[in-house]
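Students often ask why inverse folding is considered easier than folding. One informal answer: many sequences map to the same fold, so there is more than one right answer. In these notes we will look at a single instance of the problem. The structure comes first.
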């Protein structure tokens, strides 16, 4: 760029290179800080079933709800429901360790599978546990119910503890 002034000839040169290094340093520090302060949310899927068509509901006689419940008591598991006889299973080892033995586990799975075969439209079970029931035992019972075909397991506190 040349600039002429009165009587003199002079050149004025301007350096127009941009310094990007300081800006890049800011980004290098800023990006990790923003990532560390970000809140990541876990997205879960809620499985729902569509209601059955009205035509199929009107042709079949309506059955009462099963209201299947597995009660965890001090020394036994009691399986109850509407229209089924109550079944009792021993709980000695699970009460101490929180883990079901193989025999009790097999008998519970077999009983739940028979109920599911007799009532294929019901997929709900309530696990009614005492406050001192171990978490691992409840998870194991939910897994047994899911393996037998009861996909909707709910946990409920026992009123006998209160």
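Output (designed amino acids):
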């Amino acid at each position: 760029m040349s600039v002429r002034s009165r009587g003199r000839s002079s050149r004025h040169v301007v350096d127009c290179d941009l310094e990007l290094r300081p800006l890049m340093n800011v980004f290098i520090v800023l990006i990790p800080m923003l990532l560390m302060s970000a809140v990541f949310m876990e997205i879960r899927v809620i499985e729902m079933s569509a209601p059955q068509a009205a035509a199929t509901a009107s042709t079949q006689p309506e059955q009462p709800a099963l209201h299947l419940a597995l009660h965890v008591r001090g020394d036994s598991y009691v399986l109850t429901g509407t229209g089924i006889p109550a079944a009792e299973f021993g709980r000695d080892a699970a009460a101490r360790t929180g883990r079901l033995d193989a025999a009790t586990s097999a008998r519970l799975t077999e009983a739940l599978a028979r109920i599911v075969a007799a009532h294929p439209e019901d997929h709900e079970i309530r696990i009614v546990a005492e406050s001192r029931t171990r978490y691992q035992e409840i998870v194991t019972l939910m897994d047994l119910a899911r393996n037998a075909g009861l996909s909707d397991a709910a946990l409920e506190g026992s009123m006998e503890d209160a």
